[in-house]
Amino acid sequence: MIDPIRTMALGRRTQNRTVAGLSPFPPFVLFDDIQDVNNLPQVKSVFARVVVKFPRRRNSQHYILQDITGSKIEAISNGHNVQRFDALLTQGCTYTLYRVAFCLNREELQFRNIGHGLELGLITHTIVDPFTKPIQFPPFPKYLMPFHEVYQQPHKTFVDVIGIVLHLEPLKHIGGRPYREAVLMDSRWDLIIVGVWTDLLQRNALRWSLARVDKNIIIGTLLRCNHNHRCLETSDHSTIHFNPDHHTIYRLKTIRRSLIDNPRSRFIDKFLENRRAHLATITSD
Asked: Is residue 137 domain-resident?
């Protein structure tokens, strides 16, 4: 898939043999092309959409980028580069980025918003151009995390998941805001709770009701891990897609048919009972 991209980018690269006295632009890659962690950092060029642009904090600013396959990576600007990239990059827009630095993820030393073995450095020599190629970016993430891996992610990190809607808890109002929890099942038959806040709840009220009855499949993107309450929660950056066309959906369709024939309500009840017992310990503390 990378070869057509390199071909389309060739004209652009040959027209810009030197910028600021530097050597020709490095080759274009996909985020998943960088596999050799013993040979980092690597300076490359990428096509990327800014999925999330986080507010500037102290001496850095973080972004979540997506490439043309749907793979995501966290990008970071530091020091004197923060103001420059804050002005150049807009959330929701797509860019050609020359000379970005692939580095090891430093999540053990500093909080990162998504789990990934690598992160992208927006450095002094990085050049930003608009993306003008006739390539459509995918509507869904490439990787959707299994629920057993979600439980292992750090608190407050963002994840993308897919699952079958098995149950909806009653509507609540927390801090004056509507809130409702859904129980999802993934292809491993693991369960997780997704708490849905105001906007995504009200905008999709009918769809949520039908999802419970029909056991629809949903994709939730940029859901935030809440280890205290043992759930995921929608964020300002989240999206919910009902019955999406994704390459991982076929196994779930088989499970969905099985659940319609045999709802397994005891299984769900036991899961919710354990969750309520956990919440009771938090409240008592």
From this structure: no
**pTM, full prediction:** 0.87
Supply the CATH number for residue 34's domain: 2.40.50.140
- Final residue of a structural domain among 130, 156, 175: 130
Mean pLDDT by 10 residues, the chain (285 residues): 42 38 78 90 96 94 97 96 97 96 84 91 96 90 96 95 95 93 96 95 90 93 96 96 92 92 86 91 66
For residue 181, list its beta bridge partners.
195
Phi, psi of 83 (to 5 degrees): -65, -40
Predicted local confidence at residue 282, as pLDDT: 81
- Domain hosting 218: range is 147-284
Q: How many domains does the chain have?
A: 2
Question: Hunting for tokens 């420059």 — which residue is that?
Answer: 84
Q: Give alpha helix (H) positions in 44-197.
A: 81-88, 147-150
Query: Exposed, middle or buried: residue 55 (CB in 10 Å: 0-12, 13-18, 19+)?
Result: exposed
State whether 123 and 159 are in the same domain.
no
Structural contact between residues 113 and 157, judged by C-beta atoms closer than 8 angstroms:
yes
Same domain for 155 and 126: no
CA distances from 102 to 42, 65, 235 (A): 5, 13, 27
3-state DSSP of 91-106: CCCEEEEEEEEEEECC
Res 117: pLDDT: 87
- List the end-to-end C-alpha distance of the chain, in Å, as a whole number: 53
